[in-house]
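On clarity, I found the account of how folds are encoded harder to follow than it need be. For illustration, here is how one protein appears when written out as sequence plus structure tokens:

:::
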Amino acid sequence: MIEKKVDILIIGGGPAGIVSAVTARRYYPDKKILVIKSVEKGAIPCGIPYMFASLKNADENVLGNAPLEKNNIDVIVDEAVKINRDKKFISTKNNNKYHYEKLILAIGSIPISPPIPGIDKKGIYPIHKDMEYLKRLIEEIKRIKNVLVLGGGFIGVEFADELSNIKGLNIYLAEILPNLLANSFDPEFFHLVEEKLRSKGVRLLTSTRVEEFIGKKKIEKIRLSNGDELDIDCVILGIGATPNTKLAQDAGLDLGKGRGIWVDEYMRTIDSDIFAIGDCAGKRDFYTRKDVPVMLASTATAEARIAGANLYQLKVVRENKGTIAIFSTYVDGLVLGSAGLTEKSARYEGFEIIAGSIDGVDKHPFTMPNVSKIKVKLIFSKQSGIILGGQVAGGFSCGEVINIIGVAIQKRISLTELETLQMATHPYLTSAPTMYPLVLAAQDAADKI
């Protein structure tokens, strides 16, 4: 048994845990910091779908300890099983105790396992961020013929796209909703994704529920809601995750309505010495303050920087003003990004809106090498003119265009400000200054007022 005292204890070695530790070291250089993680080798979450074909080998996606070691932060592999808030220590699976002054919970999420008969059969894989587990999945994919990806959100779409690069593999993508990515994009964008996947041979089963996984010990077939049965050798569950909160609940910490750990604007729980960040922590919408189920590494690391800076004093008056929900994805050369409210979600929440759209190109003139089409849509409040959301589709430049839109949302930029946006342009790098998509989309919205 080990019993040890540290100043700052972080449970979780994912992106949120690492960034909070490095940030804490920056603001509190004299504190002793310890990170406890439950797996020896984790995986970079966003890179998991690309371990099957894009990367040369799985270990290229390992989430290493280099940032922690560089900042003189100790790391141990163990699992926290109990928090004693009164005496300020945690107990671990290996029967060790670690005392803390400040505790950060970065314990992530748990893959959703749908209540479908046969879900426990071999060959059905939730997505865990454990490198050895993922390597076993990769090896199985190499041996089979038919794979089902369950879920048409970002995870499912990215897995289906990546697996379509494996020769001889038949891929089915099942989604209970009528369209893919329908919670994050409007129709003119999510239809582009569906067309891409179909062109790569992915068989889309939209408006379809999987009713049963059939087989003896291992998955052999699936039965669908329309009565059809399909031969399936392996299933990847890409339907999302739920906050991992048991450790916090057992310690008497509150949960929010979205079932994540309740935190204030500085990521503090109801216990001022315990912080929660990342997937395990509750999220509140930037516009409505409603609880939202957004789980992104980018959001997690933003929360980690807030927590790490404010452990002992509120050194950075940068409270968490809410989750924008900013996404980007890549499907066979097509980049899509979404930030804030879609037209559908804005109307659902009761906003009176105007939308502006533009189709253009991302270089100038349009005859430049490697030019890509770009589609931009911006959503504004009709009365105030403040931006509420935006979507983009096109080439690689869209990955940063959506981040510009994200900044505009955070700073509550107006339609007029976007119309007069000052930008750097270059023929090889951007659209023409006379035809800059963000400006033209704002002008299109202005014309509708």
